[in-house]
Amino acid sequence: MKVMKNIEPLVAISIGEMVENSAHTIASKAICATETTDVRFFSYAKGESISKEYQEEDSLIYVYEGKLKIRFHQSDEQVVSKGEMMVLPSNVPYGIEVLEDSKSLNILVK
């Protein structure tokens, strides 16, 4: 495969099996990383967080298990639950607070 990695080609896999939950940590698995696109699966343990940071790419976060609080700009926040997604434009600082064990698919595009 030219661009995809960490996933077996031509085999169906459950999205829930892409990355495993681990206690007290955040884990990720990249399946595509190019100059213009980054596709990653994340697993978040309840109570963990990611500090606000800027991304040069537009970001789509699709939560397929659990519940995350996305904090953006100075004091805005939005809860994104299982089956929901949120788009964050490039150069908007955002962070994540994990409200319950969660998994997401994050797609970043320049």
UniProtKB/TrEMBL annotation:
<protein>
    <submittedName>
        <fullName>Cupin domain-containing protein</fullName>
    </submittedName>
</protein>
<dbReference type="Pfam" id="PF07883">
    <property type="entry name" value="Cupin_2"/>
</dbReference>
<feature type="domain" description="Cupin type-2">
    <location>
        <begin position="41"/>
        <end position="102"/>
    </location>
</feature>
<dbReference type="InterPro" id="IPR013096">
    <property type="entry name" value="Cupin_2"/>
</dbReference>
<dbReference type="InterPro" id="IPR014710">
    <property type="entry name" value="RmlC-like_jellyroll"/>
</dbReference>
<dbReference type="InterPro" id="IPR011051">
    <property type="entry name" value="RmlC_Cupin_sf"/>
</dbReference>
